[in-house]
Structures are given as structure tokens and as C-alpha cells.
Amino acid sequence: MRYLCLLLAAACSPAPMMMTTTDAGTDAGVPVERGPKALPLDGDGNGLWWDAPTSTLYIADDQNNRILKYRDGEGISLAANLPMAPPNGPGLGGLVLKPDGTLVVTRFGGGTYGEVVYVKTDGTGAGVVPNIPKDRRRIGLALASDGTLYDTYFVRINNVNVGSVARLDIAAGAETEVVGGMVKPVGLALTSDTMFITDQTANKLYRTPLANPSTLTTVVDVTEPDLLARGPNDSLLSGSRSNGVLQFSSSGTQSVFQGGFQQVRGVAWDEQNRRVFAVDHDGDMSNGTTHFLQIIPVP
Questions:
Q1: What single string gives the DSSP state of each residue in 176-212?
Q2: Residue 18 pLDDT > 70, yes or no?
Q3: Which of 115, 119, 254, 285 could make a disulfide contact with 107, Cβ separation 3.0–4.6 Å?
Q4: pLDDT of amino acid 231
């Protein structure tokens, strides 16, 4: 089994070299912003998805119950509004884009309003996946190469978290557990044969075979990881509450890919233009709140 390019015959890359913009081009010759750059967000981002064919980054805006988008030369703008948020707020988590142009995002729900919602990239066709349990606190989301969706969630039973990953069928309104035994699973990333999961409370990065995702193996112990994404050199990247973007190899090696941020949530990798996007959440309300989209160049 090949884990992430053997999930790195080499261990994780060192923290990326700082370099300034525009040594590549997108459609119509628009200069690429490679960073380092901190773009203020009019909202509070969480899940990210980089769509290479359209050179568009999609951002789940937890503050305003919507999906934003970033494109070079255009900046950050509205992509689509989501179905009405529950009374306790949007609680948006992971974000994926299906091949048919449907954006799908999880809603945490606080044990009462847990949902998965969707909308087309043109703002049409918004809806809520029916029939799935509302008591599941959903966070992570991943899309397999065959189109299968998976989500992470946990339920709270007598003040104890019980976490799982499920297979999600939007059309049928069905959610089926495929792996359990976790506490607070958050991030989820897939290769052709392996599922990787971060557990924010257990402080673990796990892996399990995608063909039979039932037995968890610990890849590495890690402090408070967040959402997961594929990264440079077939590594894994994760946000963290400890002011950085983390990078992992299958052998158990971890490193700080880039530090000096606030609290990193979603991350995304633009392979063509060799840059990483990270949502930088400001958790300190004492001096006002500023959330950022960070653009990190990769040599």
C-alpha cells in the first residue's frame, strides 16, 4: 500500500522559503499571488477547497453562512449563500467541490442542528441533506476519487464524546458509519487507498485502509490538529490551534510547515502554482477580531 507517495519517501519538507509574488500566470495572464500574503477576511473562514481547473479557492464562511471564493486578480468575493442557518449559528466545517459543480459543507450543530448542506458554485440549487441525525456534531469532509463523500462527526453521550467517520449519500439522505472508536475526529483526507483522520481531543493522526476502514493505526501524536489536506510532495497538511500549519509523513514525522499565525483551521494546496492557502482564525476578542486568508509560497 502506498501512503501518500509513500507519504513521503522523504520526511516532511522544511518550512517554506519566503518569496514574493507573481512568477507564474493563470488564465488570461493574470499574475499569481504566491505570497507570503495575509488577506483580511470579511468573515470567519473554516473549510477550504482549491479547484485547479478554474483556479478558484472556495472558503466556508462560518460567520456569515456562505461560501466565499478567491481568484488571482479578483480577490475575495461571494460565491454562494447557504440555506438558512440554525438558531445557534452556521457552525460550518469542511468543504468539498463535487465534479458536478456542487459545493458541500458540514454544519456542527452543537448536538441539535448537525447538518450537511450544499449549493452550486453559481449560487443555485441550495439544500440540506435530509434524514441524517441532527445530534451528530459534523466537522470534516472528504471526497474520494470515485465520488464517494465521507464526513467526520461525534456525539456526546453522558458528557463523553464518541467519534466516527461515515459514508455520506446526499441523494439518498443516508449516512453510514465506516469507522468508529475516536473522540473528536476533525480533519479527513484521502489517497487512492488510505483514509487519514485527525482527532483533536485524542491528539492523534490516524490512518485506515479506504477499502475497509475499520481499524485505526496511529501515524503520529500531535497537539490539537484541525482540518486536513493533501500537501506538497504528497504530504499531509493540517491546521492547528498552536499558531501554525503542520506537515506530516506516514512514517510518523511531523514538522511545522509555517508558523507565526493565530489559529489555523482549513488548509489547501495549489500544486500548479506551488502555494498553500490557510484560514487564520483570530480567537482573541480582546483587541477586536481579524481573520485572514494566508497565502504561503512553496519553493
A1: EEEEEEESSEEEEEE-SSEEEEEETTTTEEEEEESSS
A2: no
A3: 115
A4: 94
Distance, CA of 127 to chain centre: 21
Q: Which three cell numbers stand for residue 138?
A: 459534523
DSSP reduced 3-state for 27: helix
- Whether 41 and 69 have beta carbons less than 8 Å apart is answered as no
Q: Is 159 exposed, middle or buried (0-12, 13-18, 19+ CB in 10 A)?
A: exposed
Mean pLDDT, rounded, for 101-107: 98
Q: How many structural domains are present in the chain?
A: 1
Q: Are the C-beta atoms of residues 178 and 212 closer than 8 Å to each other?
A: no
Residue in this structure with the C-alpha cell 460567520, named with its chain if needed: 63
Kindly write down the DSSP assignment for every residue of 123-137, as one continuous string.
S---EE--SS-TT-E
User: In DSSP terms, which residues pair with 41 in a beta bridge?
Assistant: 291
Mind listing the pLDDT tens digit for each residue in 63-99? 999 999 999 999 999 999 999 999 989 999 999 999 9
Query: What CATH number is attached to the domain comprising 234?
Result: 2.120.10.30
150 DSSP β-pair partners: 142, 167
**Which of these, 152, 46, 153, 143, lies nearest to 89 by C-alpha position?**
46
Coil, helix or strand at residue 47: strand
Residue that is written with C-alpha cell 522559503 in the block:
17
Instruction: Based on DSSP, count helices (H) and strands (E) in the chain, helices before strands.
Output: 1, 24
| Domain encompassing residue 175 | 4-12+19-297
